[in-house]
Design brief:
Keywords: Membrane, Transmembrane, Transmembrane helix. The chain has about 475 residues and is α/β, with parallel strands linked by helices. It is built from 15 helices and 20 strands. The chain has two domains: about 280 residues, Alkaline Phosphatase, subunit A; about 140 residues, Gyrase A, domain 2 (2-Layer Sandwich), CATH 3.30.1360.180. β12 and β13 form a beta hairpin.
């Protein structure tokens, strides 16, 4: 059998010890090229500008609002940039838990802000969003907000309002922040953000948060289908246009990444859809210490008598299944025991609402568009313990027609929005829906941070949403 012919371009390689000066010359040339590439890459890295991100929250902006044709500026950002079908908030679908989940990537029972109002048995203290001393106390806030992650990686941050930004979490604060002022006009908030962008390069923040509450206020007071909500939608769109105009005047509009999110949606409610707890159980003689939070997530704090707790829970389960208290066909709520050892008594797994002492002993969750109250609350004749808690954390109910949130986070009414535009994002992309805990890692990716440079979180580094919308 003949040997195959030798290839005409075959090269016979000498052993290294026989190559002499030719080898050394090649080796030297390779080393110089390698060093040159490293130096060039270093200079490129040195002169690559740090991205700028403005994370905007429009409280209470439910997904359906985008279909009304009242927000052309916001819609244009999403159409020409990237947007998700919708974003799923965390349970409970309330303001503080979800804002903090967005910036930490953690579910509420992990970061600790389990609702807008709650009791911590370890501290023997209450947290309430209306209590400035609690809101600014770092002991309540677990996890690492992205402004801390940014600062740790030498990226200056600034917060024009955001839950948690006023507390020295991990003994840190953003480089710039404003104490919350509910009445500050939108234009003043935006002017503050633009002022930060006017700072010299070494002082200028590159991660900025901006928060608006007026739409949520209108939704609560008048309901999501009201004229007042439509007016608020027009106003917030005008505010976003004002921000873009300011960026354009500074020649920053094409180099700034804008992300618009909401914390939850809004469901219409009215007095006719009320669940009266005192029609279902004896609130004064059932072992209840207090009702820490009312509708649509009712949190009951019990005493040490576990038999009384189990009995009350069973009463509530029977009421929800059999329709006691004048509610035929079953009451529109579900009751759970978050600390039970019986899996059947636990909240749904997708809520991740257990294993934290702050969530209460019994929780009741109304169906969308229903509210939980008591006749004693409406008449102002609550028992002493409930009266005390009402006065400080849960105002008395009155006949009304408005809006509420805090329901099952997968309910369509609770769906929130995600819209993004800027140099980091693909154009004209519609991504799948995703959970809001993914925003933290999305921010990390925009700033080029590795997984090792971020804090532990419940999201996914280089997640599906990041792959779908980032360049």
């Amino acid at each position: 059998m003949e040997s195959p012919p030798e290839l005409p371009y075959a090269v016979k390689v000498q052993p290294w010890y026989k190559r002499g000066s030719t080898y050394l010359t090649a080796l030297t040339f390779t080393a110089v090229i390698t060093l040159t590439v490293v130096v060039i890459m270093g200079f490129v890295s040195l002169f690559t500008p740090t991205p700028t991100v403005i994370l905007i929250s429009i409280d209470g902006f439910r997904r359906e609002y985008l279909t009304r044709g009242l927000t052309p500026t916001i819609e244009a950002l999403g159409y020409h940039g990237a947007r998700a079908e919708y974003m799923v908030p965390q349970f409970p679908s309330k303001t503080f838990p979800n804002h903090y989940s967005i910036v930490t990537g953690l579910v509420p029972t992990t970061h600790g802000i389990v609702s807008n109002n709650f009791y911590d048995p370890n501290f023997d203290a209450y947290f309430s969003i209306s209590d400035t001393s609690a809101v600014t106390d770092a002991r309540w806030w677990g996890g690492e907000p992205f402004w801390n992650t940014a600062e740790k990686n030498k990226i200056k941050s600034a917060c024009m309002f955001w839950p948690g930004s006023e507390a020295p979490i991990q003994d840190m604060r953003p480089s710039y922040f404003e104490p919350y002022n509910h009445g500050m006009p939108h234009t003043e908030r935006i002017d503050k953000v633009l002022g930060w962008l006017d700072l010299p390069s070494g002082e200028r923040p590159h991660f900025i948060t901006l928060y608006f509450a007026a739409l949520d206020d209108a939704g609560h007071s008048y309901g999501p289908h009201s004229r007042q909500v439509n007016d608020a939608l027009r106003d917030i769109d005008t505010s976003i246009e004002y921000l873009l105009t300011g960026l354009k005047a500074r020649h920053l509009v094409d180099s700034t990444n804008i992300i618009i999110v909401s914390d939850h949606g809004m469901s219409p409610v009215e007095t006719a859809r009320s669940i009266y707890l005192d029609d279902l159980v004896d609130l004064d003689n059932s072992g209840i210490v207090e009702i820490v939070e009312w509708s649509p997530l009712t949190v009951i704090r019990m005493g040490d008598d576990k038999e009384a707790e189990a009995a009350l829970y069973q009463q509530l389960v029977r009421a929800s299944e059999e329709g006691e208290g004048g509610l035929e066909g079953g009451a529109p709520f579900r009751a759970y025991r978050p600390h039970s050892t019986d899996p059947a008594e636990l909240p749904p797994r997708q809520w991740a609402y257990h294993s934290n002492p702050r969530v209460g002993d019994i929780v009741i969750v109304a169906d969308p568009s229903w509210v939980i109250t008591s006749r004693a609350r409406e008449s102002g004749l609550a028992t002493a313990s409930i009266e005390e808690i009402d006065a400080t954390r849960a105002p008395l109910a009155a006949p009304f027609k408005g809006g509420a949130h805090g329901y099952d986070n997968y309910s369509e009414d609770m769906h929130s929005i995600f819209i993004a535009s800027g140099p980091a994002f693909k154009r004209e992309v519609v991504a799948d829906y995703f959970l809001n805990v993914e925003v933290y890692n999305l921010l990390a990716s925009i700033f080029g941070l590795s997984a090792a440079q971020t804090a532990p979180n419940n999201g996914t580094y280089n997640s599906r949403i990041s792959q779908q919308i980032l360049k």
